[in-house]
Structure formats: C-alpha cells, structure tokens
Amino acid sequence: MTSELMSLTWVAALSAVMWIPYILNTIAVRGLVNAVGYADDPAPLAGWAQRMKSAHYNSVENLVVFATLVLVANAAGISNATTVLACEIYFWARLVHLLSYTFAVPWVRTLSFAAGWLCQVAILLQVL
C-alpha cells in the first residue's frame, strides 16, 4: 500500500469515528428514545456537540474530494514527495480542524481548513 493510500485510510478512519462523541451527547440530552426517533421539537445539543457535528459534515464533504484525488493519483501511478507530504498534512489538518471547531478556537479552524484545501490542490496539480 502506498503512503498516500495509508493516509487516505487514516482520514477515512478519523471520519468514521467523529460522530461518536456528538451522538453520545444527543443521547444524554434527548434520551435514547428521542435520539433514535424523530421528535418534533428536539432538545438542542451542547454547543461543542453541535460544532463537532458540523466539523464531521465538513470532513465528509471534503473526504469525497480528497479520496477521489488520492485514488486517481494511485490509478495513474503518481506518487512522489509532494503527494506523500500533502496526504500526511491533510490528515493532521483535518484532525486540527475537528478539534479547533469542536472547542471553538477561531482562526485555527479556518487555517486548518485552508491547509487541508491546499493539500488537495497540491495533489490535483500532481495529477494534472
């Protein structure tokens, strides 16, 4: 497995577990029955949980682009120092984005998002 595919695996794994804390908050705030149901007027989540949920949605949206670029590069046999570094930085940028979004750290959230986006651009440039 290439380094880029390993990074993609770690990014996917991070995205796969991001929902657990905010779902636990949903259960704690709304109760199990309402958490799995469709309450007309559900109790609001804690601020951190709502922000984590938003960070998770953003992660999934960006995973589509990142995964596509990594898989296209892999299929084209493109693997170099730029793609490896971009993929590694992307993982850490997404982790920082999750934490800074969850804990409401201004600027860090935006900068980490921008770093991840630049990593996607770097991979795209290698592919093109």
List keywords for this structure.
128 residues, mainly alpha, Four Helix Bundle (Hemerythrin (Met), subunit A), 6 helices
Report how far apart the termini are.
22 Å
Number of domains: 1
| N to C succession of SSEs | HHHHHH
CATH architecture: Up-down Bundle
Q: C-alpha Rg, in Å?
A: 17 Å
Count, helices: 6
Biggest sheet architecture: none
The general outline is: elongated
Helicity range: over 70%
Which stretches are poorly predicted, pLDDT < 50 over at least 5 residues? none
The CATH topology assignment is: Four Helix Bundle (Hemerythrin (Met), subunit A)
**Class per helix and strand makeup:** mainly alpha
SSE layout and pairings?
Elements: H1 3-17, H2 19-30, H3 32-36, H4 47-75, H5 81-102, H6 108-127
Helix pairs in contact: 1-4, 1-5, 2-4, 4-5, 4-6, 5-6
Please tell me about this protein's structure.
The protein is mostly helical. It has a single domain, classed as Four Helix Bundle (Hemerythrin (Met), subunit A) (Up-down Bundle). Helices cover 80% and strands 0% of the residues. The chain contains six helices and no strands. Helix 2 (19-30) runs antiparallel to helix 4. The longest helix is centred in the middle third of the chain and has 29 residues, at 47-75. The protein is elongated. The chain starts with a helix and ends with a helix. The mean pLDDT is 96.
